[in-house]
Structures are given as C-alpha cells and as structure tokens.
Design brief:
little secondary structure, 0% strand
Amino acid sequence: APRVVKPSKKRGRPAVEPCPHGVRPRSRCGTCSGCPHGRRQRQCVDCGGAAICVHRRVKYTCVDCGGASVCEHGRQRYACKECGGASICVHARKRSQCVECGGVGICEHGAMRHKCKECGLGAPCVHGVERRNCETCGVIRGACQHGVKRYFCVICGGKGVCEHGLERRQCDACERARGAKCEHGRRRYFCKECGGAGICVHGRQKSTCKQCGGTGICEHGRHRHHCKECGAAKVLKQLTGAD
C-alpha cells in the first residue's frame, strides 16, 4: 500500500499581547522597559545595560569595539562615502542636505531648513528676534516653566544636564568618562596625537584640507564659506530664480 504522508503541522508564532500602555512587544515600551534615568535599560550607560560596551558607548556603533555598523574606514557605514552608504547621494553629499537631490533638509529658498531666515526657525518674529528664541512669542521649542529648554534646565533635571550641574556636552569630566575627550583635553575625533578619525594624513582636519579635497573646500580652492565667488553665485541664483 502506498505510504500516506501527513502534512506537517508548523507551529505558528506565539501571540504577543501588548503591554498596559498599548505597545507591542512589551520590550519596545519606554515606560515598561525604562530605567530610573529615563532611558531604555538595555542602552543606559549609568545602569550598565547589555548594549553598552567597555567604552561606555552602544556596542553596535562603537568604533573601538568594531561594531557592526562601523565600516573599514572607521565611520558609520550608512554615512560613509567610500562604502556608498545609504545616506550618501550621487553627489557625494548627505542625501538630506543635498540641494541637487532636493533633500528634506533643504527648503524652497535653497538653504538649510532649520537655518533659513525666511521660512525656518531662524526667521525673525514680530519682535525682531529669532522665532525659536523669542520669549515674548512663547514659541521656544521644548521650553519649561522656567523659560529654558527643558533638556538643558537644571531645575527640571533635564537630560542635557549632567551630575555636575553643567551641560553634558560642555562638561569635561563627563566627556572624558564617555571617551569623547582624550587625555590632551581635545575632542578625540580631532586630536592629532591620538590619531583621530577627523585628521587626514597631512595633519589637518579632513573637511578643510585642500590636498585631500575636503567637503569644506570649494571648486576655487578656497574655504567654501569664505569664497566670494561661490557666495555671489548662490545669491544671484536665489534672486534671479535661475536653475
């Protein structure tokens, strides 16, 4: 008699119920999986989360540990020009900041959206102050009851304030603790003695090195923000509306 093969019964994926806050799975809920410091416990440096390496960084993005998101050039893979990262366009610029590609960070006036003085946050209000910093208009983004950005408010205990009562990004003790500053008191990325990734073979910053063709050097061989020809051409293009 021919052998009858019964269809295999594959076990389906078990149903995952949402947490009390309506987030599914529960591990993605900031309230359920949050630590006392207001972060995800897995990625909290103070709690010593499992995703934090010995350099007090996220393992996946740590250059010293050789994280999976770091390419052979010591950069984040998605932002590396040599590797052709996903965020780099055909003009070798960040896709979101490329004028030719029409990046989301470029407004209709051809300027960075957050710096545009006509339509962005840099636009002056009726009081002649930048709209984002005007206390009279009350449109300071993320402002607390003390009139300061909540992130940097000492009284509110903002996340941008460290245990020393200073802005976390300006505190030398905290910067050295997380490895951002080296023993020479500089940003490790731009330190020549430490061989920072931001220093080229000529001992200069890569973005401003003429021999390396840094992004800060224009086609006339000058610093892009100091070049009169590039600046004049940009202004003329905006006034005439020429392509």
